[in-house]
UniProtKB/TrEMBL annotation:
<feature type="domain" description="Transcription elongation factor GreA/GreB C-terminal">
    <location>
        <begin position="86"/>
        <end position="164"/>
    </location>
</feature>
<keyword id="KW-0804">Transcription</keyword>
<dbReference type="Pfam" id="PF03449">
    <property type="entry name" value="GreA_GreB_N"/>
</dbReference>
<keyword id="KW-0805">Transcription regulation</keyword>
<dbReference type="Pfam" id="PF01272">
    <property type="entry name" value="GreA_GreB"/>
</dbReference>
<dbReference type="InterPro" id="IPR028624">
    <property type="entry name" value="Tscrpt_elong_fac_GreA/B"/>
</dbReference>
<dbReference type="InterPro" id="IPR036953">
    <property type="entry name" value="GreA/GreB_C_sf"/>
</dbReference>
<dbReference type="InterPro" id="IPR001437">
    <property type="entry name" value="Tscrpt_elong_fac_GreA/B_C"/>
</dbReference>
<dbReference type="GO" id="GO:0003677">
    <property type="term" value="F:DNA binding"/>
</dbReference>
<feature type="domain" description="Transcription elongation factor GreA/GreB N-terminal">
    <location>
        <begin position="10"/>
        <end position="80"/>
    </location>
</feature>
<dbReference type="InterPro" id="IPR022691">
    <property type="entry name" value="Tscrpt_elong_fac_GreA/B_N"/>
</dbReference>
<dbReference type="GO" id="GO:0006354">
    <property type="term" value="P:DNA-templated transcription elongation"/>
</dbReference>
<protein>
    <recommendedName>
        <fullName>Transcription elongation factor GreA</fullName>
    </recommendedName>
</protein>
<dbReference type="InterPro" id="IPR036805">
    <property type="entry name" value="Tscrpt_elong_fac_GreA/B_N_sf"/>
</dbReference>
<dbReference type="GO" id="GO:0032784">
    <property type="term" value="P:regulation of DNA-templated transcription elongation"/>
</dbReference>
<comment type="function">
    <text>Necessary for efficient RNA polymerase transcription elongation past template-encoded arresting sites. The arresting sites in DNA have the property of trapping a certain fraction of elongating RNA polymerases that pass through, resulting in locked ternary complexes. Cleavage of the nascent transcript by cleavage factors such as GreA or GreB allows the resumption of elongation from the new 3'terminus. GreA releases sequences of 2 to 3 nucleotides.</text>
</comment>
<keyword id="KW-0648">Protein biosynthesis</keyword>
Amino acid sequence: MSENTSTETIWLTQDAYDKLAAELDHLTGAGRAEVAAKIAAAREEGDLRENGGYHAARDEQGQQEARIRQLTDMLRRAKVGEALADSDEVAPGMEVTIAFFGDASDTETFLLGSREVLGLDDAQNVYSPQSPLGSAILGKRPGDEVTYQAPNGKPIEVTVLKVQPFKS
């Protein structure tokens, strides 16, 4: 596997990296202060066992800290580069069309990447490079055929039909 297709590396454009870094800065600065203020205000209301506002603020704090850990890890593993413009090789950030079992009428088009990194909603079909399908097609080109193991143990054959940079 080439360096460009490592499942440990997260490839980001400079713009995506800057957005994630700004989110991390906000969460570790003003975001933490806001949640701490909510917790302090709720504490002043009295009995913490029956204080819904306190428990909600603590839940928010836990979610925020999890996002901070996630962002820190993503930025630590990030490699910043230009979007892959002219490549026909399957890599994170590419939109890929595959055919199942060589059947050109049974196709699927998806983004290979991370919904969280790209800030996508659930409408976009996304596969992680670490998924069985994603790891099987990394580095492949149109016309390449691969077989991967589905989570249920069955082998699934796919043919890469088309690879293009993702346009958000």
